[in-house]
# Entry
Amino acid sequence: MRFFFHRHHEGEPCPHMEGLLNRAADGSSKGLARWYALAHAAHCSGCKKFLDNLTRMIEQMRREKQPPVDQGAVDRLTALVREVGAVESATEQG
Amino acid sequence: MGIYRKASFEAVAVAEIPVLYRVARRLTLNDAWAEDLVGQTLLQAAKAWESFDGQFPRSWLIRILQNAYRHDVRRANRRPKEVAIEDHDAQGEDLWQELSGRIIEAHIYEELDKLPEEYRLAVSLCDVEELSYEEAGEAMGIPTGTVKSRLFRGRRLLRQRLATIQLGAE
# Structure
């Protein structure tokens, strides 16, 4: 098991782990793939740092959803959708 | 059926306006252009709604938006200013060090906007808008494997940019 979870790469993730760690960080991996990524990171400092930082970065982007949406623009675009719907309904009714 | 589909289009389109606006803003890096692009998208989507199969409406709308953006770029020969990104992989620097929360919070979106378009869009769709790889692939018109490679590369570039800022701040 120790051989399996080697501990090289103090400063960066193991190259072969990057995809698995990315999928673990964004929550898209399940089952064995997720278990393997987390188990490897628990024993490899470079991969652990990578996973922690990436998870934090993704969580922040999901939480904040920048840029803020201009409410004036949303109102104008909503009005546009309603107008198009109204025109199409009128056209259909003859 | 027609009336049902139209009512449904309104509901779907109105609910997706904030997402479309954010994606448009991330592509164009410009508020007025983004609003114009979303307007074009909604008009085209309304026309095409009857022939839409109903699967992944968000992806479908984003794909229309992306096509409208490309059309705008070609027609007016305008493109948001992107900053050349250097890949630091070969430089041997420790760019994977612990990033401080402060650095990430202050610069994450600023640096995201500087990524090349293909990476910026992949990160924006999957990490900001929370689309699955499959939905993002539908939206960008590319296979799921390509979504993953663009996303992972985009994240790597973003982390490198943030780490560089942190090294400069220390």
The interface with chain B takes residues 11-13, 18-19, 22, 26, 28, 46, 49-50, 52-54, 56-58, 60-62, 64-67, 69-70, 73-74, 76-78, 80-82, 84-85, 88-89, 92 of chain A (CB under 8 Å). The helical segments of chain A are 18-26, 31-43, 45-64, 71-92. Residues 32 and 43 of chain A are 17 Å apart (CA to CA).
